[in-house]
Specification:
This protein is an alpha/beta fold and 382 residues long. It has 13 helices and 17 strands. The strands form five sheets. Strands 6-7-8-9-10-11-12-13 form an eight-stranded parallel beta sheet. Strand 6 (167-170), helix 6 and strand 7 form a beta-alpha-beta unit. Helix 2 crosses helix 4 (130-148). The chain starts with 36 loop residues before the first strand and ends in a 5-residue tail after the last strand.
Length: 382
């Protein structure tokens, strides 16, 4: 690990027992002569509850863990690949093959700060495998942040005190299960996220409202196909205390989507409709804002560029995640002080997290003041 405990001999003062950060890297010397080395291995994420969206249910998520070593320091990353998104993100097999090709490129560099060159070369290896690209990007950002001795929210000039509350997702289920899940989280979170787009959307909201009056964010997962139905639903949702809506209609229905956004009393965010930086400008006028996910956009480097462009276009921004360990969630959380909404509960949905990183305290995202993406490796929970 990059963070080592100091000596514990009797007589050392308290400072000697504090975690030791790597000595800051001297960028001007162009590297130490050491070469980077990439390792990766599969790691199945086990969900605490069966997770259901409009068209799919699952209890596990395939994942690949990535580590980049350089001069005694390790950067961590991961590729999460929910089965229903593997066409966009890559499958475990394709991402593993992709990472095998990346190993050679990473090994050619003795300066991890050449991130633009490194990540551009990696991006050119294939048109897809976004999750694999994100894993390498996250590990490289973790590594360089550790070498600089600073977390990425500081490198980007952000104030961690401005990190928002995160939503906590409640999947589509029976009323009894929805009530139970709502009771479990109503006292720990400030805003809930509800998956809709099925046949019982109003029942889902009414069931949650029977338990709590917390604000609700809604993700329809492209589930509403008629624009008048979508708008009527949004008008009703506003009356129920809903504060935003993600991807109400299929991404191909651009004209309908623009009409709904123009009429909607709630902000409407693109999710399935957007993946990478090149998609952002086309979202203006179709949606109020965009949802940035590291697994889709290839990582932190592109996510920061997407956020910057969206703000320049006058759009709102949210940052989201897949089901992930605290590694990828903490990487995404570095952006959180700069966004309007955050949906970073993916690490809370799994039972075998390998890391300690960003935490949710009184419903709000709390970023540790540790270098890189702010994670520490821990033993997996049994």
């Amino acid at each position: 690990m990059a963070t080592l405990a100091a000596g514990t001999a009797l007589g050392l003062d308290a400072a000697a027992h504090a975690p030791k950060r790597p000595a800051p890297f001297n960028i001007n010397r162009g590297g130490t002569g050491a070469r980077m080395k990439l390792r990766f291995f599969p790691y199945e994420l086990k969900l605490r509850h069966v997770f259901t969206v409009a068209t799919y249910s699952r209890s596990t998520t395939p994942d690949i863990q990535v580590e980049i070593d350089y001069d005694g320091v390790t950067g961590y990353g991961e590729a999460s690949m929910p089965p229903y998104l593997q066409r966009e993100l890559g499958s475990p097999e394709s991402v593993a093959a992709f990472l095998g090709r990346v190993q050679q490129i990473i090994g050619e560099f003795d300066d991890p700060f050449k991130t633009e060159e490194i990540l551009a070369r990696i991006d050119s290896l294939s048109p897809g495998d976004a999750a694999g690209k994100a894993a390498v990007d996250i590990a490289l950002h973790d590594l360089t942040g550790k070498l600089l001795g600073a977390p990425w929210f500081r490198i980007w000039g952000l104030d961690r005190e401005k990190a928002p509350s995160t939503t906590f997702t409640i999947g589509i289920d029976t009323p009894d299960v929805v009530r139970r899940k709502t009771r479990e989280c109503a006292d720990r979170f400030n805003i809930l996220k509800v998956k809709l787009g099925g046949e019982n959307d109003r029942l889902m909201i009414e069931t949650i409202r029977s338990v709590t009056d917390l604000p609700i964010a809604v993700d329809a997962n492209q589930g509403w196909h008629d624009r008048r139905q979508a708008l009527d639903m949004i008008l009703w949702l506003k009356e129920q205390g809903v504060v935003m809506v993600e991807q109400p209609m299929p991404r191909q229905q651009r004209d309908d989507m623009a009409w709904v956004t123009q009429q909607s009393p709630l902000p409407v965010f693109a999710d399935e409709a957007i993946q990478r930086l090149g998609d952002v400008a086309a979202m203006k006028g179709l949606y109020t804002g965009i949802n940035i996910k590291l697994m889709k956009c290839t990582g932190m480097r592109e996510a920061w560029k997407m956020l910057t462009l969206a703000r320049a276009l006058g759009m709102k921004v949210m940052v989201g995640c897949m089901t992930e360990t605290s590694c990828a969630c903490s990487a995404a959380a570095q952006l959180s002080p700069a966004v309007d909404f955050a949906d970073l509960d993916g690490n809370l949905l799994i039972a075998n997290d390998r890391f300690r990183g960003m935490e949710v305290v009184d419903g709000r995202i709390t970023l540790p003041d540790r270098p890189g993406i702010g994670v520490e490796l821990i033993e997996p929970q049994k």
